[in-house]
């Protein structure tokens, strides 16, 4: 059976290889494990809360309707950092395709975490589609504004924690020449480094990166991960390094920052403004793929 549902999670197994699986917690519709032929591709903290008491530290938490902590928007500033999708229990809508196994989860105002909808009471319908390919994982989001009179204003982001052997010999490629906003320096500049390397805490947002730019996590000349994006122009690159991870109670082991890097495709520099009755779609595809070098233009 390629789809198994329990009270708290859903597990997909690829029909051609039973060691290719994806596991999704209904809480947050959080993908918390993805194995390709037996090899785990995502990082998950050993102290992650898996009981719905806190967003999951690791896997692919979903960020909606606000990225980070908004201080200025009249409505969105009331929500906690990264919004309400990662701390709401989603409804499992079932399987839509058998090969590659594909399933859907839904979230709307009526079933979302009431602590959050008290703070932000807009109407929304989200459908998350998860497709487990033999050699890829696709996560796609559809956002509908069901209101008949009001625009829906939001950010979306897949907060993907990728597993890597060692942050110190890992590079991120194909973002050269892009405008980057460094959240720690609070400065924006054009990044001329041919690749991104990590020596300290990194928290940057590459802005309006064209879809042709395929972000790759490269080690010893081979891509460990390839991230393709559709309608997600911004790419956040995050590694908390020693001090920040040391201060996060749910980040374990403390040396775990060496084995993860977040590549987070999103729509976060601007807000999407969706008119009444309209829908918006976006997706990310994770795979290994071949090395592709895209130089500065
Ligand atoms: C990243 C942000 O997307 O998420 C960082 O750019 C933030 O600033 C990180 O620290 C983790 O956020 P949280 O809320 O899961 O601790």
UniProtKB/TrEMBL annotation:
<feature type="active site">
    <location>
        <position position="159"/>
    </location>
</feature>
<dbReference type="InterPro" id="IPR008183">
    <property type="entry name" value="Aldose_1/G6P_1-epimerase"/>
</dbReference>
<dbReference type="Pfam" id="PF01263">
    <property type="entry name" value="Aldose_epim"/>
</dbReference>
<dbReference type="GO" id="GO:0047938">
    <property type="term" value="F:glucose-6-phosphate 1-epimerase activity"/>
</dbReference>
<comment type="similarity">
    <text>Belongs to the glucose-6-phosphate 1-epimerase family.</text>
</comment>
<comment type="function">
    <text>Catalyzes the interconversion between the alpha and beta anomers from at least three hexose 6-phosphate sugars (Glc6P, Gal6P, and Man6P).</text>
</comment>
<feature type="binding site">
    <location>
        <position position="86"/>
    </location>
    <ligand>
        <name>substrate</name>
    </ligand>
</feature>
<feature type="active site">
    <location>
        <position position="264"/>
    </location>
</feature>
<feature type="binding site">
    <location>
        <position position="81"/>
    </location>
    <ligand>
        <name>substrate</name>
    </ligand>
</feature>
<keyword id="KW-0413">Isomerase</keyword>
<dbReference type="InterPro" id="IPR014718">
    <property type="entry name" value="GH-type_carb-bd"/>
</dbReference>
<dbReference type="GO" id="GO:0005975">
    <property type="term" value="P:carbohydrate metabolic process"/>
</dbReference>
<dbReference type="GO" id="GO:0005737">
    <property type="term" value="C:cytoplasm"/>
</dbReference>
<protein>
    <recommendedName>
        <fullName>Glucose-6-phosphate 1-epimerase</fullName>
        <ecNumber>5.1.3.15</ecNumber>
    </recommendedName>
</protein>
<dbReference type="InterPro" id="IPR025532">
    <property type="entry name" value="G6P_1-epimerase"/>
</dbReference>
<dbReference type="InterPro" id="IPR011013">
    <property type="entry name" value="Gal_mutarotase_sf_dom"/>
</dbReference>
<dbReference type="GO" id="GO:0030246">
    <property type="term" value="F:carbohydrate binding"/>
</dbReference>
<feature type="binding site">
    <location>
        <position position="57"/>
    </location>
    <ligand>
        <name>substrate</name>
    </ligand>
</feature>
């Amino acid at each position: 059976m390629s789809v198994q549902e329990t009270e708290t999670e859903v597990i997909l197994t690829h029909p051609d290889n039973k060691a290719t699986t994806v596991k999704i917690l209904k809480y947050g519709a959080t993908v918390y494990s993805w194995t390709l032929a037996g090899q785990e591709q995502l990082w998950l903290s050993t102290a992650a809360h898996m009981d719905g008491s806190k967003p999951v530290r690791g896997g692919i938490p979903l960020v909606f309707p606000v990225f980070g902590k908004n201080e200025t928007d009249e409505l969105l500033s009331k929500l906690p950092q990264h919004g309400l999708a990662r701390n709401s229990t989603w409804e499992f809508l079932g399987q839509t395709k058998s090969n590659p196994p594909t399933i859907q989860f839904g979230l709307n105002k009526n079933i979302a975490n009431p602590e959050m909808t008290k703070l932000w009471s807009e109407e929304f319908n989200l459908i998350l589609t998860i497709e487990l390919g033999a050699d890829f994982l696709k996560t796609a989001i559809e956002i509908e504004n069901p209101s008949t009179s009001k625009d829906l204003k939001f950010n979306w982001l897949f907060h993907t924690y990728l597993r890597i052997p060692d942050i110190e010999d890992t590079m991120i490629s194909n973002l050269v020449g892009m405008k980057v906003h460094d959240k720690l320096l609070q400065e924006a500049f054009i990044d001329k480094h041919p690749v991104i390397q990590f020596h300290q805490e990194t928290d940057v947002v590459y802005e309006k990166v064209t879809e042709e730019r395929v972000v790759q996590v490269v080690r010893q000349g081979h891509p460990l991960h390839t991230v393709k994006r559709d309608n997600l122009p911004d790419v956040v690159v995050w590694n908390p390094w020693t001090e920040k991870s040391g201060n996060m109670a749910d980040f374990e082991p403390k040396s775990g920052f060496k084995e993860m890097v977040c590549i987070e495709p999103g729509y976060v520099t601007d807000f999407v403004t969706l008119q009444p009755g309209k829908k918006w779609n976006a997706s990310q595809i994770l795979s290994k793929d071949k090395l592709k070098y895209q130089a500065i233009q």
